[in-house]
Amino acid sequence: MLELKNLRFAYGDKTIFEKLNLSITPNVVSGFLGQNGIGKTTLFKILSGELEALEGSILWNGQELKGTDVGILKTDPFFYPYMRGSEYLELVLGALSQKVNDYADLLGLPLDELIDNYSTGMRKKIAFVAIICQGRPVLILDEPFNGVDLEGNEIMKAILQREQEGKIIICSSHILEALTDCADLVLFVKKHFVIDRYAKADFDALRGHIRQMIEGKLENISS
Question: In this predicted model, what pLDDT tens digit does every residue of 44-54 receive, in sequence order?
């Protein structure tokens, strides 16, 4: 269980969240959905140790969460120049296992080529393989499907389902269908970081709620 207790964070006088309490269970893929600038990426940086909460605690199975417990796939992964795909994976993972090679092959990654020559989607795929194969118990994937081709998207979603046992897997997206296709639970983040939970059986209700929100805004536009 990943537990966030009374978490508070602000940029100067701009409060992102205050007294945030949230529990996330393992063995499922949890999707975070919300508007730009709502604070999802900030929360992910706190979970990974890149930022420090002003107050509160984060626990993994009752113990303080450490940065080494967390693997994070950022929206724009960083790569050193003049590095081949295989060299990048060896740098991140230490060695290339059969599973790493199998996942890379499944996603169509040419590991003998320079990453400088990879497309945006291929870069996202190889960073995804590296994060998944690190074996860390908490995985955070920030917009993992952006720029990835249709087949790659489906393969990545299947890999997430295959790898979820014993892990906390968190995916974020601004696209509803990207999450409902792969997540077992969607956490809809609203203003002031209010979070509504939607189980898979409630995804239609979530879609209806979002449609109502949009229709309400459209009604205020003059014809």
Answer: 999 999 999 99
Q: Cβ-count burial of 58 within 10 angstroms (0-12 exposed, 13-18 middle, 19+ buried)?
A: buried
The DSSP secondary-structure symbol of 168 reads E
Q: What DSSP character marks residue 52?
A: -
What is this structure's pTM? 0.89
Question: Rounded to whole angstroms, how far apart are CA atoms 111 and 106?
Answer: 12
pLDDT at 155: 95
Q: Look at the block and give the residue holding tokens 């046992």.
A: 165
165-208 pLDDT, tens digit per residue, is 999 999 998 788 888 988 999 999 888 888 899 999 999 998 98
Domain 2-81+135-192 has CATH 3.40.140.10: no
3 state DSSP class of 23? strand
Q: How far apart are the first and last CA of the chain?
A: 50
Interatomic CA distance for residues 13 and 40, integer angstroms: 18
Q: CA-to-CA distance for 94 and 142, rounded, in angstroms?
A: 24
196: enclosing H helix or E strand: strand 195-199
Q: Is 80 exposed, middle or buried (0-12, 13-18, 19+ CB in 10 A)?
A: exposed
Q: What is the pLDDT, as a whole number, of residue 222?
A: 67
Cross-strand partners of 33: 173, 188
